[in-house]
Every structure is written in C-alpha cells, then in structure tokens.
Design a protein that fits this description.
- The chain is an alpha/beta fold and about 240 residues long.
- About 25% of the residues lie in helices and about 25% in strands.
- It has one domain: Spore Coat Polysaccharide Biosynthesis Protein SpsA, Chain A, CATH 3.90.550.
- Strands 1, 4, 5, 6, 8, 9, 10, 11 and 12 form a nine-stranded mixed β-sheet that branches. A two-stranded antiparallel ribbon has the order 2-3. A two-stranded antiparallel sheet has the order 7-13.
- β4, α2 and β5 form a beta-alpha-beta unit.
Length: about 240
C-alpha cells in the first residue's frame, strides 16, 4: 500500500446510545442530524475529501436503518461495507470483527460515529502513516487527543512529546481521547473472533511498551452524548 490515502477506515456505529434516548429509540445515534446532515454523513464526506476510498461501518442497534440511509457509498464516492454485529461487541471487539472486511495491509483509521469534528484535517492525520511504518518501535496506535470537555474533566491519558501514556509524569498533559485514531491490526491479534472486548486495556498494554503515539488537536470537537448537546450543536451549526 504505497498511498496512505488508500488506508481503510472503520466508522464505529454499533452503540445503543442510551443517553440519547428517546431520540435513539427509533434511530441509531450516528444517524442523528446536525444541520441537514447526519453525523455519519459528515464523516463520510470528510473521508471522501481526504481521498479515502474504502469504508466499513459496524452496527448493531437498528443497523438496517444505517444501511438503508447510506447504501453502498457511491453517492460519497466511497465503497462502504457493513460489519453486522447483532449484539454490540465493544470497540476492540468491533474493530477485530471488521478487519476481515477492512483488509488492512497494516494500519486502519478508526473514527467514532458519534463524534462531531467539523473540518477535522483527515489528510494531515494520514501523513502520520509513513512515519508510523518507518518507526523502529513499531507503534500499535496513534491517538488524536483533545482538551478535556466539561463532561469529562479528568481526561483519559497523558500526552508527552508525542507519546501517549497511562501514567502521570512531570510535564505530561492529561487529555481526552477524541475517538479518532489509527491502529495497527496487530493490536487486536490476540482477541477471539466475534468476542466482545474493550479498547482501553489493549491501549494501556501497548502504552506500557511505548507503542502508542499521539497528538493534541485544538480544533472544534464534540462528543454528541446527550439530547441537550445535540440541540446546542444544531443551534451553532444550523446552516451547515
């Protein structure tokens, strides 16, 4: 794979969206709209603009509605396949199951379907791919970190000079994981096929081995977690 823009991308859309009820009783959370486009549509447009071609969307709750809304992706100049889970497999389990469809050479771009990150520079993120491939430490993940939002004040991991860590150290800044990351398929090699598995334990194990890198992103980023937050974003971005 010579061109990093031909990297496959997985959009995570299998969650039930409990905190978004009743909006998600009849609609999968990533199909909720900001302005005149759903969260998933916005991701797909951004991916297409970054010259990504192959996208897989995993789903469980009301997944057929996602397939009906987005089809094969041709309207976005993308090829979309669907990883059907039935029962959601958590993040790592979902990524592992989708690898058969993604067919990565090594790395895969993964984005949470329920984050809203207008104008996120996917193309510049993809510029990390050649660096990751050339890195003798064989990084297993590259995470986009953001300043801690009010609903998550304690953050997730520490960032120090491009290395993401689980343990505090002097000068390290604790940030929130944005839900946007690049993963090496080897991160999931030890998972059982079709089994539910969380991502954080795999990342922490890789962090211990200094195999997780990352960056701090200061552009607009929102975790669309509650109906109130969705309503506020619709006021702010109504015309987009």
């Amino acid at each position: 794979m010579s061109n990093s823009s031909s990297l496959p991308c997985l959009l995570l859309a299998a969650g039930r969206g409990e905190r978004m009820r009743p909006l998600t009783d009849e609609l999968p959370k990533p199909l909720l709209k900001i302005g005149n486009q759903s969260l998933l549509e916005r991701h797909l447009i951004s991916l297409s603009q970054a010259s990504i071609k192959k996208v897989v969307i995993n789903h469980a709750w009301l997944g057929e509605k996602i397939e009906n809304a987005l089809g094969d992706g041709s309207q976005f100049n993308l090829q979309i396949d669907y990883s059907r889970e039935g029962t959601a497999l958590e993040t790592a389990g979902g990524i592992h199951k989708a690898l058969d469809l993604l067919k990565p050479t090594d790395y895969v771009l993964v984005i949470n379907g329920d984050v809203f990150c207008p104008n996120f520079p996917i193309a510049s993120l993809l510029e990390q791919i050649p660096k990751l491939r050339a890195n003798p430490a064989k990084p297993l993940a590259y995470l986009v970190m953001v300043p801690n939002p009010t609903q998550h004040p304690n953050g997730d991991f520490y960032l120090l000079e491009g290395s993401v860590q689980d343990i505090s150290s002097p000068k390290a800044e604790k940030l929130t994981f944005s839900g946007i990351g690049i993963y090496h398929q080897g991160l999931f090699a030890h998972l059982k096929s079709g089994a539910s598995a969380k991502l954080a334990p795999l990342l922490k194990e890789a962090m211990y081995k200094k195999q997780v890198l990352g960056e701090k992103y200061l552009g607009p980023w929102h975790d669309v977690g509650t109906p109130q937050r969705l309503q506020e974003l619709n006021v702010t971005y109504a015309s987009t």
